[in-house]
Amino acid sequence: MEQVKLGIIGIGNMGSGHCNNILAGKTPEITLAAVADRKEARRTWAKENLPENVAIFTTGEELIESGLCDAVLVAVPHYDHPRYVIMALEHGLHVMSEKPAGVYAKQVREMNEAAAKSDRIFGMMFNQRTNCVYRKMHEMVQSGKYGQIKRVNWIITDWYRTQAYYNSGEWRATWDGEGGGVLLNQCPHNLDLLQWICGLPTRVHAFCHNGKWHDIEVEDDVTAYLEFENGATGVFVTTTADAPGTNRLEITLECGRLIAEHDKLTFFELDQNEREYCFAAKTGFDQPTGHEYEVPLDGENPQHVGVLNAFSGAILRGEPLVADGTEGIRGLQLSNAMHLSSWLDQTVTLPVDEDLFLEKLNEHRAASKGKKDVQEVTFDTSNSYGSKVK
Description:
9-stranded mixed sheet, 6-stranded parallel sheet, alpha/beta, 15 strands
């Protein structure tokens, strides 16, 4: 096999972007073989914009069973991610899933069990892991060279969205269609990065405000308090309503402080471990010395293209993925914990009680009122991530 024949299930905002990247030659080891979408308007777009040799199907089931593809990319609404992943794996296809892995951890655990039984490659579209800033943070924190984490603060409020965005699809921003708001749509990236760099918290107390700034039924404003196994604490703040927004990730370690902001990574490195200094200092107001510098980066940030090129490399040569698909459950556990904590108005422990979460989610789904004033639009998402640290 010289090229991977890829089928894309769902050619909305993200799926059409992947089509364009492949057709532009940015993924030389992947060829677009087929697409599928239930919406006639999107199939019409495919007929008008894709080469004639790209097969067009109405359902993902038809695409998977067609025999035209070596692999599929799942880019449908969140609830259907695990279903199509499992189906594709059972048909002997490699799979790349858009984030999030699913809506609830119990469903994703079943998907991971199917992946464990398969010899196919399964990847997750965590494109922000390709960002040189976050890659370097992961390297520095996980090395242990700078001591344990003491505190984590992430203010990630530059996911600004208008009401027109939420009106662009009937499934969007509803409990029954999307399964959540900013935590399930925008922040799977950030929650994955948080756990990838720092590890999963053990306790969470969150406040999720539904429809605070938009006419939607899911959360668009979240503040969460986190506790980690080693005693470190953290705060995670996000919204889709701040303009201008902020993206600042600050990690305090025993030997210094890392700050990711404005596409740069700065480090104030202490000359001595603060824990050692604290108990060795002779006066009450001494402070440990150190120096601040900008951390050198390789400048690489290939985003979705980087994930897909690693995916083809894994299929063709056994090279590593950017993110294994089974890792998707970790960030989802964190968002599930935030939702459950807010619904119960209490601190919850991780791993989250999956049955209780599903019970409460189904209560929200049952009360979902659907949407009026839907104006179906497919947006160009190419500038929603770009080269920025988002």
